Amino acid sequence: MPPIISRWIPLACVVLASYLLWSASRVPAQIDQDKSPTRLRSPLPPAAYTVPADLKDPFEPRTDIRATRAPVGAVPGKDATERKPRAPAPIHLGGILWDPVHPLAIVNGDVLGKGQKGPSFEVLDIFPDGVRVRSGGKVIEKHLEKVR
After folding, report:
1. E strands, the chain, where?
2. Is the dihedral of CA 55, 59, 65, 68 positive or negative?
3. CB count, 10 Å around CB of 46?
4. In a 3-state reduction of DSSP, which class is residue 124?
5. For 14-73, what is each residue's pLDDT tens digit?
6. What angle do CA 17, 18, 19 make, to 5 degrees?
7. How many alpha carbons fall within 13 Å on the CB side of residue 46?
8. Distance CA 123, CA 113 (A)
9. Which residues pair with 132 in a beta bridge?
10. Other beta carbons within 10 Å of 140
11. pTM of the model
12. Residues 6 or more apart whose Cβ sits within 8 Å of residue 78
């Protein structure tokens, strides 16, 4: 680039910026009818930014909804107190990962510790050769099968 052009580019940018600032300062502010310089008139009509009184918050939880579905396991036409307790799910003990501090059991394919819950059971206790679980309201104890 010729040296004369490289000298004029910064000067042209400064002149252009000065012109833009000068022209922006010459636009008169829109003043209300009372000619008060502290109160500017809004470009939008008041109806555009006022909220109607009957408008509801879309994120507020609804309280007018009632449960329409029956609880899981309920029989149509019978009272909820007449429901039978579920039968315990079959429990398969796959293995024990024994550690005196934090033992783990493989029950129905899930690796669980003491007090953790599976899909239909809860591990109550873990022994070096077995596990005690609660399933369907019953306590079941399963032991590892001995290898011959």
Report:
1. 93-97, 104-107, 110-113, 122-126, 130-135, 138-143
2. positive
3. 7
4. strand
5. 888 888 777 766 655 554 455 555 555 666 676 666 666 777 777 777 776 665 666 666
6. 90
7. 1
8. 7
9. 125, 141
10. 17
11. 0.42
12. none
